[in-house]
What does this fold into?
Amino acid sequence: MPVLEELRQAVVDGQAKAAVARATQGLEEGIPAEVLLRDGLISAMQEVGRLFEEGEIFVPEMLVSARAMNATLVVLKPLLATEGSEARSEGKVVIGTVQGDLHEIGKNLVAIMLEGSGFEVVDLGTDVSPERFLEAAEAGADVVAMSALLTTTMTNMKAVVEALGRAGLRDKVRIIVGGAPITDRFASEIGADGYAPDASKAVRKVRELLAVKA
Amino acid sequence: MSACGSAGPRASTWLAGPGGSHHEAPRLETKPVDAAVVFRDWDLRPNVDMVLRALGADSGRAGKGSPAAVGLAEEAVTAGQGLLQPAVVAASCAVTGLRHQRLQLEGGGYLAGPLINEHLYGARSVVAAVCTIGPALETEASGWFARDPALSVALDALGSAAVDMLVAALCQRVGDEAVAEGLQTTMPLSPGLTGWPVATGQRQLFALVDASSAGVTLTGSYMMLPRKSASLVIGIGPQVDRGGEPCDYCSMAATCRYRQRRVSDHG
It folds into this structure.
Protein backbone atom coordinates (compact mmCIF):
# COMPACT_ATOMS: atom_id res chain seq x y z
CA MET A 1 0.00 0.00 0.00
CA PRO A 2 2.16 2.88 -1.19
CA VAL A 3 -0.33 5.49 0.01
CA LEU A 4 0.29 4.39 3.60
CA GLU A 5 4.02 4.78 3.16
CA GLU A 6 3.50 8.18 1.53
CA LEU A 7 1.28 9.25 4.42
CA ARG A 8 3.88 8.09 6.88
CA GLN A 9 6.66 9.95 5.05
CA ALA A 10 4.58 13.14 4.81
CA VAL A 11 4.13 13.14 8.59
CA VAL A 12 7.82 12.43 9.17
CA ASP A 13 8.65 15.36 6.86
CA GLY A 14 6.13 17.61 8.59
CA GLN A 15 4.18 18.20 5.38
CA ALA A 16 0.66 18.73 6.71
CA LYS A 17 -1.08 19.34 3.38
CA ALA A 18 0.52 16.30 1.81
CA ALA A 19 -0.37 14.17 4.83
CA VAL A 20 -4.02 15.20 4.65
CA ALA A 21 -4.06 14.55 0.90
CA ARG A 22 -2.56 11.08 1.31
CA ALA A 23 -4.98 10.20 4.12
CA THR A 24 -7.90 11.34 1.97
CA GLN A 25 -6.57 9.28 -0.91
CA GLY A 26 -6.22 6.29 1.38
CA LEU A 27 -9.82 6.60 2.51
CA GLU A 28 -10.96 6.80 -1.11
CA GLU A 29 -9.04 3.60 -1.79
CA GLY A 30 -10.95 1.92 0.99
CA ILE A 31 -8.29 1.81 3.68
CA PRO A 32 -9.97 1.94 7.09
CA ALA A 33 -9.29 5.09 9.11
CA GLU A 34 -7.95 2.95 11.94
CA VAL A 35 -5.27 1.53 9.66
CA LEU A 36 -4.31 4.99 8.41
CA LEU A 37 -4.03 6.09 12.03
CA ARG A 38 -2.04 3.13 13.26
CA ASP A 39 0.20 2.36 10.30
CA GLY A 40 0.42 5.90 8.96
CA LEU A 41 0.32 8.48 11.73
CA ILE A 42 1.38 6.67 14.89
CA SER A 43 4.01 4.70 13.04
CA ALA A 44 5.35 8.00 11.64
CA MET A 45 5.57 9.57 15.08
CA GLN A 46 7.47 6.56 16.38
CA GLU A 47 9.94 7.06 13.54
CA VAL A 48 10.14 10.78 14.44
CA GLY A 49 10.97 9.83 18.03
CA ARG A 50 13.69 7.48 16.84
CA LEU A 51 15.21 10.09 14.53
CA PHE A 52 15.15 12.64 17.36
CA GLU A 53 16.91 10.33 19.79
CA GLU A 54 19.56 9.57 17.19
CA GLY A 55 20.18 13.27 16.62
CA GLU A 56 18.96 13.12 13.03
CA ILE A 57 16.22 15.67 13.66
CA PHE A 58 15.54 18.26 16.36
CA VAL A 59 12.57 19.75 18.17
CA PRO A 60 11.40 21.95 15.25
CA GLU A 61 11.11 18.92 12.98
CA MET A 62 9.32 17.01 15.73
CA LEU A 63 6.86 19.85 16.08
CA VAL A 64 5.97 20.05 12.41
CA SER A 65 5.49 16.28 12.32
CA ALA A 66 3.06 16.53 15.22
CA ARG A 67 1.36 19.36 13.40
CA ALA A 68 0.96 17.24 10.27
CA MET A 69 -0.44 14.44 12.37
CA ASN A 70 -2.97 16.71 14.05
CA ALA A 71 -4.11 18.11 10.70
CA THR A 72 -4.67 14.57 9.44
CA LEU A 73 -6.49 13.52 12.60
CA VAL A 74 -9.11 16.17 11.90
CA VAL A 75 -10.00 14.15 8.79
CA LEU A 76 -9.79 10.73 10.41
CA LYS A 77 -11.48 11.25 13.77
CA PRO A 78 -15.10 11.44 12.58
CA LEU A 79 -14.55 8.30 10.53
CA LEU A 80 -12.97 6.44 13.42
CA ALA A 81 -16.16 7.04 15.36
CA THR A 82 -18.31 5.94 12.40
CA GLU A 83 -16.26 2.77 11.96
CA GLY A 84 -16.86 2.03 15.62
CA SER A 85 -13.14 1.79 15.98
CA GLU A 86 -12.28 4.77 18.14
CA ALA A 87 -8.54 5.01 18.28
CA ARG A 88 -7.40 2.70 21.02
CA SER A 89 -5.45 4.65 23.60
CA GLU A 90 -2.04 3.35 24.53
CA GLY A 91 -2.75 4.59 28.04
CA LYS A 92 -3.90 7.66 29.91
CA VAL A 93 -1.32 10.17 31.09
CA VAL A 94 -2.07 13.02 33.47
CA ILE A 95 0.53 15.73 32.98
CA GLY A 96 1.27 19.08 34.62
CA THR A 97 3.90 21.50 35.89
CA VAL A 98 4.14 21.32 39.67
CA GLN A 99 2.88 23.85 42.16
CA GLY A 100 4.71 27.17 42.19
CA ASP A 101 6.09 26.73 38.69
CA LEU A 102 4.55 28.41 35.64
CA HIS A 103 6.87 27.04 32.97
CA GLU A 104 4.97 25.10 30.35
CA ILE A 105 7.02 24.51 27.23
CA GLY A 106 8.79 21.34 28.35
CA LYS A 107 5.53 19.95 29.63
CA ASN A 108 3.79 20.91 26.39
CA LEU A 109 6.41 19.18 24.25
CA VAL A 110 5.97 15.97 26.22
CA ALA A 111 2.18 16.24 25.87
CA ILE A 112 2.47 16.77 22.11
CA MET A 113 4.72 13.73 21.67
CA LEU A 114 2.59 11.52 23.93
CA GLU A 115 -0.55 12.40 22.00
CA GLY A 116 1.26 11.83 18.75
CA SER A 117 2.23 8.39 19.99
CA GLY A 118 -1.33 7.39 20.72
CA PHE A 119 -1.66 8.17 24.40
CA GLU A 120 -4.63 9.96 25.92
CA VAL A 121 -3.28 13.07 27.65
CA VAL A 122 -5.00 15.04 30.39
CA ASP A 123 -3.09 18.31 30.60
CA LEU A 124 -3.57 19.99 33.97
CA GLY A 125 -1.52 23.04 32.96
CA THR A 126 0.95 24.81 35.23
CA ASP A 127 1.14 25.52 38.97
CA VAL A 128 -0.70 22.27 39.68
CA SER A 129 -1.25 21.40 43.32
CA PRO A 130 -0.79 17.86 44.67
CA GLU A 131 -4.54 17.77 45.26
CA ARG A 132 -5.27 18.38 41.57
CA PHE A 133 -2.78 15.73 40.48
CA LEU A 134 -4.43 13.32 42.93
CA GLU A 135 -7.94 14.17 41.75
CA ALA A 136 -6.97 13.58 38.12
CA ALA A 137 -5.23 10.31 38.98
CA GLU A 138 -8.27 9.10 40.92
CA ALA A 139 -10.39 9.78 37.83
CA GLY A 140 -8.36 7.10 36.11
CA ALA A 141 -4.78 7.48 34.95
CA ASP A 142 -2.05 5.04 34.08
CA VAL A 143 0.76 7.57 34.43
CA VAL A 144 1.25 10.88 36.22
CA ALA A 145 3.89 13.04 34.51
CA MET A 146 5.31 16.05 36.35
CA SER A 147 7.52 18.87 35.13
CA ALA A 148 9.53 21.54 36.98
CA LEU A 149 12.06 24.05 35.73
CA LEU A 150 13.19 25.55 39.02
CA THR A 151 15.23 24.15 41.86
CA THR A 152 12.80 25.98 44.12
CA THR A 153 9.80 24.06 42.77
CA MET A 154 11.20 20.63 41.93
CA THR A 155 10.81 19.65 45.58
CA ASN A 156 7.03 19.92 45.15
CA MET A 157 7.15 16.74 43.08
CA LYS A 158 7.69 14.73 46.22
CA ALA A 159 4.43 16.02 47.70
CA VAL A 160 2.55 14.59 44.70
CA VAL A 161 4.27 11.21 45.05
CA GLU A 162 3.35 11.16 48.74
CA ALA A 163 -0.25 12.22 48.07
CA LEU A 164 -0.68 9.37 45.58
CA GLY A 165 0.82 6.99 48.14
CA ARG A 166 -1.51 8.12 50.92
CA ALA A 167 -4.50 7.68 48.60
CA GLY A 168 -3.48 4.07 47.92
CA LEU A 169 -2.80 4.76 44.23
CA ARG A 170 0.91 4.18 44.19
CA ASP A 171 0.63 0.62 42.89
CA LYS A 172 -1.84 1.62 40.19
CA VAL A 173 -0.22 4.74 38.78
CA ARG A 174 3.28 5.12 37.42
CA ILE A 175 5.07 8.41 37.99
CA ILE A 176 7.51 10.08 35.60
CA VAL A 177 9.33 13.38 36.17
CA GLY A 178 11.33 15.77 34.04
CA GLY A 179 12.59 19.32 33.68
CA ALA A 180 15.87 21.18 33.59
CA PRO A 181 17.06 20.57 37.16
CA ILE A 182 15.71 17.00 37.41
CA THR A 183 18.01 13.99 37.37
CA ASP A 184 17.58 10.25 37.48
CA ARG A 185 18.92 10.32 41.00
CA PHE A 186 16.40 12.94 42.10
CA ALA A 187 13.59 10.87 40.58
CA SER A 188 14.69 7.86 42.62
CA GLU A 189 15.06 9.92 45.79
CA ILE A 190 11.48 11.17 45.67
CA GLY A 191 10.09 7.75 44.77
CA ALA A 192 9.18 8.40 41.12
CA ASP A 193 9.28 5.49 38.70
CA GLY A 194 11.21 7.25 35.99
CA TYR A 195 12.90 10.33 34.60
CA ALA A 196 13.25 11.54 31.05
CA PRO A 197 15.49 14.36 29.83
CA ASP A 198 13.44 15.16 26.73
CA ALA A 199 10.04 14.62 25.13
CA SER A 200 11.01 11.67 23.00
CA LYS A 201 12.60 9.80 25.88
CA ALA A 202 9.54 10.61 27.98
CA VAL A 203 7.39 8.71 25.49
CA ARG A 204 9.79 5.81 25.55
CA LYS A 205 9.85 5.82 29.36
CA VAL A 206 6.06 5.87 29.57
CA ARG A 207 5.87 2.93 27.16
CA GLU A 208 8.46 1.10 29.22
CA LEU A 209 6.65 1.76 32.48
CA LEU A 210 3.30 0.64 31.16
CA ALA A 211 4.82 -2.48 29.71
CA VAL A 212 6.29 -3.23 33.12
CA LYS A 213 2.90 -2.62 34.64
CA ALA A 214 1.17 -4.90 32.17
CA MET B 1 16.00 49.03 48.90
CA SER B 2 19.52 50.19 48.37
CA ALA B 3 20.52 53.62 47.33
CA CYS B 4 22.05 52.54 44.05
CA GLY B 5 21.33 54.91 41.23
CA SER B 6 19.26 54.35 38.15
CA ALA B 7 21.51 53.45 35.29
CA GLY B 8 21.01 54.77 31.83
CA PRO B 9 22.24 54.39 28.31
CA ARG B 10 23.77 57.82 27.93
CA ALA B 11 27.50 58.26 28.08
CA SER B 12 28.92 57.14 31.40
CA THR B 13 25.56 56.67 33.07
CA TRP B 14 25.88 52.88 33.33
CA LEU B 15 28.96 53.37 35.42
CA ALA B 16 29.11 54.19 39.08
CA GLY B 17 31.62 53.95 41.86
CA PRO B 18 34.60 55.32 43.61
CA GLY B 19 36.86 55.14 40.61
CA GLY B 20 39.61 52.87 39.43
CA SER B 21 43.15 52.79 40.65
CA HIS B 22 44.57 54.12 37.41
CA HIS B 23 41.52 55.85 36.15
CA GLU B 24 38.92 57.96 37.83
CA ALA B 25 35.69 56.17 36.95
CA PRO B 26 32.75 58.45 36.40
CA ARG B 27 30.23 58.72 39.18
CA LEU B 28 26.60 58.17 38.64
CA GLU B 29 24.28 60.73 40.02
CA THR B 30 22.56 58.81 42.77
CA LYS B 31 18.81 58.61 42.61
CA PRO B 32 16.35 56.68 44.74
CA VAL B 33 15.68 53.23 43.38
CA ASP B 34 11.97 53.91 43.11
CA ALA B 35 12.82 56.56 40.53
CA ALA B 36 14.39 53.92 38.31
CA VAL B 37 14.13 54.63 34.63
CA VAL B 38 12.84 51.94 32.33
CA PHE B 39 14.66 51.78 29.00
CA ARG B 40 12.54 50.69 26.11
CA ASP B 41 14.67 51.77 23.16
CA TRP B 42 15.68 48.27 22.07
CA ASP B 43 15.29 47.17 18.50
CA LEU B 44 14.91 43.41 18.76
CA ARG B 45 14.47 41.45 15.56
CA PRO B 46 15.09 37.77 16.18
CA ASN B 47 15.42 35.92 12.90
CA VAL B 48 14.39 32.45 11.80
CA ASP B 49 17.76 30.90 12.66
CA MET B 50 17.55 32.27 16.20
CA VAL B 51 14.08 30.81 16.65
CA LEU B 52 15.21 27.44 15.35
CA ARG B 53 18.20 27.48 17.70
CA ALA B 54 15.97 28.42 20.64
CA LEU B 55 13.88 25.40 19.69
CA GLY B 56 16.97 23.23 19.99
CA ALA B 57 17.90 22.94 16.34
CA ASP B 58 21.47 22.22 15.39
CA SER B 59 23.03 25.66 14.99
CA GLY B 60 25.23 24.36 12.22
CA ARG B 61 22.21 23.64 10.10
CA ALA B 62 19.54 25.85 11.65
CA GLY B 63 18.78 27.57 8.37
CA LYS B 64 19.02 24.30 6.55
CA GLY B 65 16.39 22.47 8.58
CA SER B 66 13.43 20.84 6.95
CA PRO B 67 11.32 23.26 4.89
CA ALA B 68 8.39 22.67 7.21
CA ALA B 69 10.47 23.51 10.29
CA VAL B 70 11.83 26.67 8.68
CA GLY B 71 8.28 27.58 7.70
CA LEU B 72 7.13 27.17 11.30
CA ALA B 73 9.88 29.48 12.53
CA GLU B 74 8.96 32.03 9.87
CA GLU B 75 5.34 31.91 11.02
CA ALA B 76 6.44 32.54 14.59
CA VAL B 77 8.58 35.53 13.60
CA THR B 78 5.74 37.02 11.57
CA ALA B 79 3.13 36.45 14.26
CA GLY B 80 5.28 37.37 17.25
CA GLN B 81 7.63 40.17 16.25
CA GLY B 82 5.01 42.86 16.84
CA LEU B 83 4.31 41.51 20.32
CA LEU B 84 7.79 42.15 21.68
CA GLN B 85 7.77 44.85 24.35
CA PRO B 86 11.40 45.02 25.45
CA ALA B 87 12.20 46.85 28.64
CA VAL B 88 15.23 47.03 30.90
CA VAL B 89 15.40 48.49 34.36
CA ALA B 90 18.86 48.81 35.80
CA ALA B 91 20.69 50.20 38.77
CA SER B 92 24.34 51.11 38.93
CA CYS B 93 25.90 50.51 42.31
CA ALA B 94 29.35 51.37 43.60
CA VAL B 95 31.21 48.60 45.39
CA THR B 96 32.37 49.45 48.88
CA GLY B 97 33.97 46.15 49.82
CA LEU B 98 34.17 42.39 49.48
CA ARG B 99 34.34 40.14 52.51
CA HIS B 100 33.44 36.50 53.02
CA GLN B 101 31.98 36.15 49.51
CA ARG B 102 29.80 39.21 50.13
CA LEU B 103 30.10 42.20 47.80
CA GLN B 104 28.96 45.21 49.76
CA LEU B 105 27.38 48.02 47.74
CA GLU B 106 26.97 51.69 48.42
CA GLY B 107 23.65 52.29 50.11
CA GLY B 108 23.53 48.99 51.99
CA GLY B 109 22.70 46.52 49.24
CA TYR B 110 24.85 43.50 48.67
CA LEU B 111 25.45 40.49 46.45
CA ALA B 112 26.74 37.28 47.99
CA GLY B 113 27.74 33.79 46.99
CA PRO B 114 30.67 31.82 45.60
CA LEU B 115 29.89 32.95 42.02
CA ILE B 116 29.85 36.59 43.09
CA ASN B 117 33.14 36.15 44.90
CA GLU B 118 34.74 34.41 41.93
CA HIS B 119 33.76 36.96 39.29
CA LEU B 120 33.18 40.31 40.98
CA TYR B 121 36.22 40.50 43.25
CA GLY B 122 37.84 43.17 41.07
CA ALA B 123 34.70 45.17 40.35
CA ARG B 124 34.49 48.81 41.38
CA SER B 125 30.84 48.98 40.50
CA VAL B 126 28.09 46.70 39.28
CA VAL B 127 25.11 47.14 37.01
CA ALA B 128 22.15 45.12 38.27
CA ALA B 129 19.40 44.75 35.71
CA VAL B 130 16.10 43.09 34.98
CA CYS B 131 15.21 42.62 31.32
CA THR B 132 11.87 41.57 29.90
CA ILE B 133 10.08 41.35 26.59
CA GLY B 134 6.74 41.84 28.34
CA PRO B 135 3.70 39.60 28.65
CA ALA B 136 2.11 39.94 25.19
CA LEU B 137 4.09 37.27 23.37
CA GLU B 138 3.78 34.60 26.05
CA THR B 139 0.05 35.25 26.35
CA GLU B 140 -0.26 34.79 22.60
CA ALA B 141 1.87 31.62 22.73
CA SER B 142 -0.23 30.10 25.51
CA GLY B 143 -3.41 30.98 23.64
CA TRP B 144 -2.25 29.05 20.59
CA PHE B 145 -1.48 25.82 22.44
CA ALA B 146 -4.96 24.31 22.17
CA ARG B 147 -5.32 25.28 18.49
CA ASP B 148 -1.81 24.81 17.16
CA PRO B 149 0.69 23.42 19.68
CA ALA B 150 3.59 23.68 17.24
CA LEU B 151 3.09 27.40 16.68
CA SER B 152 2.66 27.89 20.41
CA VAL B 153 6.05 26.32 21.10
CA ALA B 154 7.67 28.25 18.23
CA LEU B 155 6.30 31.54 19.59
CA ASP B 156 7.74 30.66 22.97
CA ALA B 157 11.09 30.05 21.30
CA LEU B 158 10.87 33.45 19.63
CA GLY B 159 10.46 34.89 23.12
CA SER B 160 13.52 33.04 24.39
CA ALA B 161 15.56 34.29 21.44
CA ALA B 162 14.33 37.85 22.05
CA VAL B 163 15.30 37.79 25.73
CA ASP B 164 18.74 36.47 24.80
CA MET B 165 19.10 39.33 22.31
CA LEU B 166 17.99 41.86 24.90
CA VAL B 167 20.53 40.63 27.44
CA ALA B 168 23.23 40.69 24.75
CA ALA B 169 22.27 44.23 23.74
CA LEU B 170 22.39 45.41 27.35
CA CYS B 171 25.79 43.78 27.90
CA GLN B 172 27.01 45.43 24.71
CA ARG B 173 25.88 48.89 25.84
CA VAL B 174 27.40 48.53 29.28
CA GLY B 175 30.56 47.07 27.79
CA ASP B 176 30.92 49.84 25.21
CA GLU B 177 30.66 52.52 27.87
CA ALA B 178 33.11 50.71 30.10
CA VAL B 179 35.65 50.38 27.29
CA ALA B 180 35.26 54.07 26.46
CA GLU B 181 36.22 54.82 30.04
CA GLY B 182 39.16 52.42 30.01
CA LEU B 183 37.29 49.86 32.09
CA GLN B 184 36.33 46.23 31.65
CA THR B 185 33.17 44.24 32.30
CA THR B 186 32.59 40.72 33.57
CA MET B 187 30.28 38.20 32.01
CA PRO B 188 26.66 38.64 33.09
CA LEU B 189 25.86 36.68 36.23
CA SER B 190 22.32 35.49 36.84
CA PRO B 191 20.66 33.90 39.86
CA GLY B 192 20.42 30.18 39.31
CA LEU B 193 23.92 29.76 37.96
CA THR B 194 26.11 27.43 39.98
CA GLY B 195 27.32 29.32 43.04
CA TRP B 196 24.43 31.77 43.18
CA PRO B 197 21.18 29.97 44.05
CA VAL B 198 17.96 31.26 42.53
CA ALA B 199 16.28 32.16 45.81
CA THR B 200 19.14 34.10 47.39
CA GLY B 201 20.28 35.63 44.12
CA GLN B 202 16.85 36.92 43.15
CA ARG B 203 16.29 38.38 46.64
CA GLN B 204 19.60 40.23 46.48
CA LEU B 205 19.16 41.46 42.92
CA PHE B 206 15.53 42.53 43.24
CA ALA B 207 16.50 44.56 46.32
CA LEU B 208 18.74 46.64 44.05
CA VAL B 209 16.39 47.12 41.11
CA ASP B 210 12.81 48.29 41.04
CA ALA B 211 11.74 45.60 38.60
CA SER B 212 8.07 46.40 39.02
CA SER B 213 8.62 49.59 37.06
CA ALA B 214 9.27 47.36 34.04
CA GLY B 215 6.30 45.19 34.94
CA VAL B 216 8.38 42.32 36.31
CA THR B 217 7.43 40.61 39.55
CA LEU B 218 8.70 37.59 41.47
CA THR B 219 6.56 34.63 42.44
CA GLY B 220 6.92 32.88 45.80
CA SER B 221 9.31 30.45 44.12
CA TYR B 222 11.44 33.33 42.77
CA MET B 223 10.30 32.90 39.20
CA MET B 224 9.96 36.09 37.20
CA LEU B 225 6.73 37.14 35.58
CA PRO B 226 6.47 37.74 32.67
CA ARG B 227 8.28 34.44 32.17
CA LYS B 228 10.34 35.83 29.31
CA SER B 229 12.51 37.93 31.59
CA ALA B 230 16.11 37.78 32.76
CA SER B 231 17.87 39.17 35.81
CA LEU B 232 21.59 39.75 35.87
CA VAL B 233 24.49 41.65 37.28
CA ILE B 234 27.61 42.84 35.44
CA GLY B 235 30.80 43.81 37.22
CA ILE B 236 32.78 46.84 36.04
CA GLY B 237 36.32 47.79 36.95
CA PRO B 238 39.79 48.56 35.68
CA GLN B 239 40.75 44.89 35.83
CA VAL B 240 37.97 42.41 36.30
CA ASP B 241 37.62 38.73 35.58
CA ARG B 242 36.60 38.54 31.95
CA GLY B 243 36.70 34.80 31.57
CA GLY B 244 33.92 32.28 31.18
CA GLU B 245 30.41 32.46 29.93
CA PRO B 246 27.15 31.84 31.79
CA CYS B 247 26.73 28.35 30.31
CA ASP B 248 29.92 27.28 32.10
CA TYR B 249 28.14 27.87 35.41
CA CYS B 250 24.83 26.25 34.55
CA SER B 251 23.95 22.99 36.25
CA MET B 252 22.72 21.73 32.87
CA ALA B 253 25.98 22.48 31.09
CA ALA B 254 26.74 18.82 30.42
CA THR B 255 23.37 17.93 28.95
CA CYS B 256 21.80 21.12 27.56
CA ARG B 257 20.95 20.67 23.89
CA TYR B 258 20.70 24.44 23.46
CA ARG B 259 24.23 24.91 24.66
CA GLN B 260 25.65 22.06 22.63
CA ARG B 261 24.25 23.53 19.46
CA ARG B 262 24.53 27.17 20.26
CA VAL B 263 26.34 29.67 18.14
CA SER B 264 26.97 32.73 20.25
CA ASP B 265 25.15 35.83 19.16
CA HIS B 266 26.80 37.71 21.98
CA GLY B 267 30.06 38.39 20.27
